[in-house]
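Q: What residues go here?
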């Protein structure tokens, strides 16, 4: 009776009954399910580029989703990628599979939060290690417009930080020492002291249960001076669910 009264009040005030849902279970994915996104990559002041990419499920196990990622319209099968059953991104670090991005943590409930943290050794020649810490939180429902249409989606936001240890480097300095009868070239090696740098990250995902994946995502990285250095945006163009 109490639940019916709450539902009636929500309808009376024009609020969708979906807003009172307790939780959302993981989608049932099947071979052949596919999603096409327009992906936009921005990197500092160097400009941006845009691609149209398709994600297609190859097979599903209890713990993983195996899928192909390729350019939309391409006749090639594309790259085969493995993700967690909740679409979490997995990488091998120091011989161990590590979750590095987890936009969804089923069951989904408004107010739910979770943390992903990992350390990557030697991400590039200048960095000896980088640690990423991200806290995700389910905010609530909102309408979002993408090329595939308008959706009432559950928004997940994530904020975090990254800390990197700059690898020490050697600098060779040569100086000439003159004498009355000769000159000598002296070579010295100076080793820099390791430094730590840090920055901020922001992510947002808009998930729609019947779509089985997010319809939009935004991921941003900010440098140590607070300037945005990277921004990736994905917007759904079309999708196909074989079980629907």
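A:
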């Amino acid at each position: 009776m109490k639940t019916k009264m709450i539902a009636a009040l929500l309808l009376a005030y024009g609020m969708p009954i979906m807003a009172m849902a307790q939780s959302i279970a993981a989608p049932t994915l099947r071979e052949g399910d596919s999603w096409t996104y327009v992906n936009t990559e921005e990197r500092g002041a160097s400009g941006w580029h845009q691609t149209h990419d398709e994600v297609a499920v190859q097979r599903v196990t209890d713990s993983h989703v195996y899928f192909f990622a390729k350019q939309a319209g391409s006749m090639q099968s594309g790259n085969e990628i493995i993700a967690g059953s909740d679409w979490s991104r997995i990488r091998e670090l120091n011989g161990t599979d590590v979750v590095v991005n987890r936009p969804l943590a089923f069951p989904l409930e408004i107010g739910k939060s979770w943390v992903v943290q990992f350390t990557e050794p030697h991400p590039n020649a200048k960095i000896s290690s980088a640690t990423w810490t991200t806290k995700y939180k389910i905010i609530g429902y909102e309408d979002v417009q993408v090329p595939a249409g308008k959706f009432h989606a559950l928004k997940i936001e994530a904020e975090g930080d990254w800390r990197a240890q700059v690898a020490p480097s050697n600098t060779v300095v040569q100086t000439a020492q003159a004498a009355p009868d000769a000159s000598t070239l002296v070579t010295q090696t100076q080793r820099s002291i390791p430094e730590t740098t840090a920055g901020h990250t922001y992510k947002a995902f808009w998930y729609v249960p019947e779509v089985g994946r997010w319809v939009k995502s935004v991921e941003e990285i900010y440098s140590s001076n607070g300037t945005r250095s990277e921004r990736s945006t994905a917007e759904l163009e079309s999708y196909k669910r074989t079980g629907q």
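A: Context that may help when evaluating the design: DSSP finds one helix and 14 strands in the chain. The chain has one domain: 32-240.
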